[in-house]
Amino acid sequence: MPTDRAPDPAGTPVLSLRGIGKRYGDTVALHDVSLDIAEGEIVGLLGHNGAGKSTLMSLTAGLLRPDTGQVQVCGEPVARARHRLGLAPQDLGVYPPLTVRQNLCFFAELAGLRGRDVHRRTDDVAEPLGLTALLDRRVARLSGGEQRRVHTAVALLHRPRLLLLDEPTAGVDVETRTRLIDFVRDLAATGTAVCYSTHYLAEVEALDADVAVLDHGRLIAKGSLQELVRSHGGGWVELTFTGAPPEARLPWPVTDDGDTLRVRADQPHLALPEILAALGDGTSRLTNLNVVRPSLESVFLHLTGRRYTAQDDSPAGPSSTGPRDTPDGPSADGPRTTETVPHA
Ligand SMILES: Nc1ncnc2c1ncn2[C@@H]1O[C@H](COP(=O)(O)OP(=O)(O)OP(=O)(O)O)[C@@H](O)[C@H]1O
């Protein structure tokens, strides 16, 4: 059985990316990305659409070759260490006409398992992902969330040292999301290194993961949630208007993003009265008001100038940091007020 739990030389990360660059024609998908993931560490890989997350996952899994740099898994070039990693890509890779058990047994054999190990391992991965009762059901008859759990289970059959999950909760319900997060945490507690890409900040917070932020192919931040909030701290008051935001003279940094004014302040809720007073008559055109307390969302705003969830149109996704709604026009009841809760 190709299980590999031999200890690595002390200090060798399970995943080591050094100076990774990748272009598709004129598009720079990744530029000089270096990242380590240690045994038992979960890294939440975040970035807006097109930031390079899937490219990074594919390179890490050895499915793509970087133009520059090196990918090492457990101290070896990835080409020699593929058996040590498991990848659950964004697109489902299971066979709908087969049952869950048939899928898992098929992929277990592909991964090199034989005889009783195939069935034992199938049962082992099915149980924590809540698939035991579904083993004899055809995948085609399962819900989207159940199918995604099967897809994730496939990546685990050979007990990888490194698990790559590319948006594992895309389109799944809240229960499946919670179950997956618990499962990933338990897995990491047994020593598996996990790289987890997602569009939902709340998941990264629930995973208690370190955070790696990609922006236009560059790794612009890496650290624990607490570290990032400390170094890119402060919160925001976000005010949306009909038409261009009014001028406001304020003692805090102000950015103007179309119809939205953002004011960065250490204690945004305390800054609010002064901000509203400075807007004067402009408040009559106010349609939405959002206080973003120091959190992963405020870190994102600071690093990229954009809300993380603002471009995410998945109906199944939770809003990690409070509503991201921006009404089309003024509400009859006045501006909508929301608050982003601090997580760190
Ligand atoms: N096969 C390809 N050919 C050409 N360009 C590509 C290809 N795959 C990705 N790209 C481009 O490379 C950049 C990074 O894409 P990638 O899919 O890695 O981003 P992502 O962060 O995973 O995005 P998303 O969150 O939308 O899945 C984007 O500009 C994308 O358009």
Would you mind describing this structure in some detail?
The protein is α/β, with parallel strands linked by helices and 344 residues long. The chain contains nine helices and 15 strands. It has helices at residues 53-60, 100-110, 116-126, 144-154, 174-189, 201-207, 225-231, 268-279, 296-304; strands at 15-24, 27-37, 42-46, 68-73, 76-77, 85-88, 162-166, 193-197, 210-215, 218-223, 235-241, 254-257, 260-265, 286-292, 336-340. The strands form three sheets. Strands 6-7-8-3-9-10 form a six-stranded mixed β-sheet, with helices on both faces. A five-stranded mixed β-sheet has the order 12-13-11-14-15, with helices on both faces. A four-stranded antiparallel β-sheet has the order 2-1-4-5, with helices on one face. The chain is elongated, with a radius of gyration of 22 Å. The site of adenosine-5'-triphosphate has 11 residues, from strand 2 and helix 1.
In brief:
It is built from nine helices and 15 strands. By secondary structure, it is an alpha/beta fold.
Mean pLDDT: 86
Number of helices in the DSSP assignment: 9
Largest sheet: 6 strands, mixed
List the uncertain runs.
Answer: 310-334
Structural class: alpha/beta
Please report which band the strand proportion falls in: under 5%, 5-15%, 15-25%, 25-35%, 35-45% or over 45%. Answer: 25-35%
Family: Belongs to the ABC transporter superfamily.
GO molecular function: ATP binding
Main location: membrane
Pfam family, one: ABC_tran
